[in-house]
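Open question from group meeting: does this chain pack into something compact, or does most of it stay loose? Before anyone orders reagents, we agreed to write out a predicted structure and look at it together. Recording both the input and the output here so the notebook holds the full record.
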Amino acid sequence: MELIDQHTKRIMQGCKRRARDAGLRFEDETLEYIVSNRDLLELSPKVMIPTLYDYWVHDVEVLKGKGKYELYPGNPFETVINTRPAVSFYNDNNPDWLNVMIFYHVLGHIDFFQNNLFFRHTWDYDFNGQALADKRLIAALRSEKGRWVDYIIEFARGIDNLVGFHHELYRLDRTPLADFSSRVNYYFDVFLQQEKKVSTTRYVQEIKRYNDCLQQFGDQGEQTFFADIIRDYPEFDALYRRNRETRHVHMPDLMQYLLEHSEMLNREENKWMQTVLQVVRNTSLFFQPQIRTKIMNEGWASYWHETLFLQDNRINGHEVDFARVNASVTAMPRVGLNPYALGMRLFYAIEQMADQGRLSIEFQRILDADQRRRFDRATGRGRSYIFSIRENFCDFLFIKNFVDQDFVTANNLFVAGRRLNRDRMVWEFYVKSRKADDYRQMVLDSLYHPPVIEVDEEQGQDGELYLVHRFEEKPLVQEFIANTMLGIEFLWGAPVHLETSEVVSIGAPEGKDLPAGTAATDAQENVGSVTWQRVRYTMRDRKLSKKTL
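Structure tokens returned:
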């Protein structure tokens, strides 16, 4: 692995100037490395950030990668990591014209990393430097504790998808409320909306009355305002006090809870384990936004490599080569999802809709297909609008808001179904639905959505840990429960309980019977109602048991 040469660096600098002229914003300092095709396949966050701590299972993953390359040799083009400065890796045999295209793609990624608000907790420190400190720390612990360090890392990584990512964003982006008392917040946020369920008109009137009191009576304005409230609602003070006493206090995520409350981890001889858990937790928090913005991130980078390279005179003579490479990256598959293709087409569609004024109530109220097709207000706001989307959205919001019937129809998208041809004993794929609601749901179901596991301190007795899975119609993967709870029991130092929901039975649609012996996976096209039941898993002395509740 080595830095790119000066000739290639000058190409990158030229790409940066053109990207900035188009509106992209990113720090000027970047590092570009040259690696072989085989090495590029094996790059993981651990390798892309050479300072990231070593983990023994990674050696197995490298061997798996080499085996795959021997069977299916490929030629990936680049990979980029969100550090300060940003680090990217390139094939050692790329021609100059291909590097131009790839540099634009990478700059799109860097712009996304450094401007999307879901990455804001990564902006304020040098993760590469922090990872170096962590690596040295773990290396020192490994020399003293041996493989126990790797076991602790493995136990921690079993639950590192449960970190409180959104709470971290909330903490960083919380608007100061010093100018408003808790009484005012309760009145407008809880009392009027949840207790009294007043109309929007009444709610706005109360806001105006509050502002009038402040303007007329100054420092005594709030007191005057609530004097009228008590007259109209004598029960207000009692409800307010009860809310203060019972209001929800943020419960730390599972890893944070173990760090703060595990007696085993807080023993003097086990303090080093806390350090390892904190390193794993911080690393997980750093990488959380990347998996939550995969479609947007790749779509944004693909949008810009296509847009900027087509305007670049260095494409001359390489139009066919570019078309071939670009199609291999951004082609929309008939079955399955390509985040590059879907994200890029959505950004193009959003830009066009904003340019034509279609992101408006006026357009949404039009039902006639011909009128919708001819609608164009020529606002010229398309480019600025997609920049605001890049800044504020994640994949869930992106798909939920912009995959509509017009987009699905224009791109000839559909949901593919699968059925078993019993005569030929082969699986057949067919067009199951072309409705936007179905396609949107299919994409949403494919997004990263870790389970919500909360600690229930009231049910945890005699020092035992009681975990509750907040069920969202998605069961836990049963094959992972035993090993994960084994690790939690070790870190907690006492038995662990996990309450969750599992399938009892799958019913056939009305008027239709499932064939005898049909497995749930085979019946996915014929599923009717699903019956769930709550169960409790208990890990005690490294033995797992289950009880139906």
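Observations to bring back to the group:
Residues 31 and 140 are 29 Å apart (CA to CA).
The longest strand covers residues 496-506.
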